[in-house]
Amino acid sequence: MWRQKSVMWMLVRRDLAVKYQSSVLGYVWSLIDPLVQALIYWFIFGVLYHTKTELYGAGYPLFIVSGIFSWMWISAGITESAHALTSQARLITTMRVRREIFPVSKVLARAVEYLVGLPIVVLFAILFHGTFTWRILVGLPLSMAIQGVLLVGIALILSPLNVLFRDVERMTRLIVRILMYTAPIIYPLSRVMESGMPRWLKDVYQLNPLVGIIDIQHGMWIPQLFPKPTVILASAVGSVIIFLIGVWVFRKTESAVLKEL
Amino acid sequence: MGNLVIEAHDLGIQFNKGRRKQRKLREMFIFRGNNRRTPAATTDFWALRHLNFSISHGEAVGLIGSNGTGKSTLLRLIAGVLTPDEGSVVCRGKVAPLLELSAGFSGDLTGRENVQIVAAMHGLSSQQIKSKFDEIVDYAEIGDFIDTPIKHYSSGMKVRLGFAVITQLEHPVLLVDEALAVGDRKFREKCYKTIEGMLAQGRTLVLVSHSDADLKRFCKRGIYLRGGQLITDGPVEDALDTYHDFAKV
């Protein structure tokens, strides 16, 4: 197992090295990307629509940035893990390592990028009246753990299926876009709860594991937004279920995938 | 002799000739991989079937056969990068696969970075890599180009570097798939010497080759495959004779 761990770490290193090798700004790009997105949303929803009232004194930029950085890990993790196996086919067909490490390493590489971006979030928290409480120390590992389990599960489902059906990759892009707007990233959860949606739809909405993850991210800096334990629990349970499905799918498809590569 | 390193029991693997059909997905989940009730689809064929053999520690075995008879597939099964549909194959001990020498290299990274990454993926620790790094570079005859991105390397340089990494592995089982046919004569001779050296250390070798000379040079035993079946398993000369007799007709 130790050997596999070091292989995984090498894959993460290689992933990051390749990504930032031939660009001048290097890893700064992984900060610019979410910041520009945040800027756009701030302009639309902060300036034009005044999403301020529900934020308990904190600035909308903090709200959006804390959500977006976590979201970047999710979206990049999902889209890149979809072709984790197809893009490394030659390596997989010549080296005997556990095949799971390829999709998992993609998720980890994006996690590293997320961690690197955290100081920016802290900076925004200082500038836009974030509250520094114990919630940061609890929320960060908690949300990262749930998110990691969820993303690994999704990666284990998508990466082998994409080998067998290349449609998966295109479908993923579409789904990621939908997910972005069905999680409280650019709008607070209260907007959904106070909307005219029927009760059951609101419940379904909250079953999405991303709701808990993103709201922990917000709640770390804006205590009033910290989700209820039930929401966190739903998120954790949902993630574990998807993880288990992922393990099962991967095991079932592995032999067919190896032939196809 | 005595202790078996590689054992195959009733080994078989099935491939799909056409494109994978929708129907297959359902089957994949319903049937287990090693299920005997194989779906009777006409597009499926057995690349290998009913293979039984075992290879002892220190043996050098050549796989012989025409193109498309399953030699490389068998090697991949032994290496564990394919899983059998029928029967089993066991390989005890770490495997140094020389299936594709430049596998794992990324063009954008320099030779140095690639060596570090690939060596680590083959299971070398960072101390081992550090201490063996100069040896690898010397062996590959890369020189100053070690800090050049690999995409600018010639194909020969890439292969040399890939082989140089493998030579540093202490894995007891070597699987070689015609990889040595590339490179110029001088380097090939060097590779051969290295492999002979490894064999002298008591490592086990399975070699796929179309060259009689190579097979006779390294191997005492030959396994002749035809149409996915094991035809001859014996001294390499016998296996080659059977192969040539068949090929003539």
Question: Key features?
Answer:
heterodimer; A: 261 residues; mainly alpha; 11 helices; 0% strand; B: 249 residues; three-stranded antiparallel beta sheet; 8 helices; 37% helix
What does this structure look like?
The complex is a heterodimer of chains A (261) and B (249). With 261 residues, chain A is mainly α. In chain A, helix 3 runs antiparallel to helix 5 (101-127) and helix 6 runs antiparallel to helix 10. Chain A starts with a helix and ends with a helix. The longest helix of chain A has 32 residues, at 229-260. Chain A contains 11 helices and no strands. Chain A is 76% helix and 0% strand. With 249 residues, chain B is an alpha/beta fold. Chain B is built from 8 helices and 9 strands. A 6-stranded mixed sheet of chain B has the order 5-6-7-3-8-9, with helices on both faces. In chain B, strands 2-1-4 form a 3-stranded antiparallel sheet, with helices on one face. In chain B, strand 8 and strand 9 form a beta hairpin. Mean pLDDT of chain B is 80; it is low at 32-40. The interface between A and B is medium-sized, with 29 and 33 residues.
